[in-house]
Write a structure and sequence with these properties.
The protein is α/β, with parallel strands linked by helices. The protein is about 25% helix and about 35% strand. The strands form 2 sheets. It has a 7-stranded mixed β-sheet with strand order 3-2-1-4-5-9-8, with helices on both faces. The protein has a two-stranded antiparallel ribbon with strand order 6-7. Strand 1, helix 1 and strand 2 form a beta-alpha-beta unit. The chain is globular and about 45 Å long.
Length: about 170
């Protein structure tokens, strides 16, 4: 399951690994571009508000991905509840977001329109918030990684990646 698939950039990559993908996004215009780009029977694109029931069967998925989407979600608890429902036991929830340190400096998601640059509503989620909400929803962290621009470790990290696993196990 791909949360916030947008124009299908990551969907194409996921197709190389998955037998079936349900790709969710709230923007019909983004989904239109994704459907045009990826015409594959193994992908089902759905117009979905991630803040509401995802309409996916329980214990359906081995993996859920969220790439640069959760910064647009205020209530992460609901996201983790839905992820817990949809994932099989021992399934993985991969999150990659703009690092909160970047957000502290004012970095935000934005895109060009005919009218100019448009900034989206963003919420800063701290690393501890991801970990705590995950624990409260029967997930544990198996990997946490920070990515830097040009691998320059003297700068603030650009992205935060976290892999959670559903169920009981070793991790934090």
């Amino acid at each position: 399951v791909e949360l916030g698939c947008g124009t299908g950039k990551n969907t194409d990559f996921l197709l190389k690994k998955a037998t079936k993908i349900i790709a969710l996004d709230f923007s019909d215009k983004m989904l239109e571009k994704a459907k045009f780009k990826i015409q594959e029977d193994r992908v089902e694109f759905r117009l979905t508000d991630l803040n509401k029931d995802w309409q996916i069967s329980a214990d359906f998925a081995d993996l859920i991905t969220a790439n640069l989407v959760l910064e647009h979600i205020k209530n992460l608890d609901f996201i983790f509840k839905e992820a817990n429902k949809v994932l099989k036991n021992q399934g993985y929830f991969f999150i990659c977001e703009l690092h909160p340190f970047k957000q502290y400096l004012g970095s935000k998601a934005r895109f060009e329109t005919k009218e100019g640059l448009k900034e989206l509503q963003c919420y800063t989620h701290h690393i501890s918030e991801f970990i705590e909400i995950a624990k409260n929803n029967d997930f544990y962290c198996v990997e946490l990684k920070e990515w830097f621009d040009k691998d320059d470790l003297k700068e603030i990290p650009r992205l935060l990646g976290i892999v959670f696993k559903k169920g009981k196990g070793t991790g934090f």
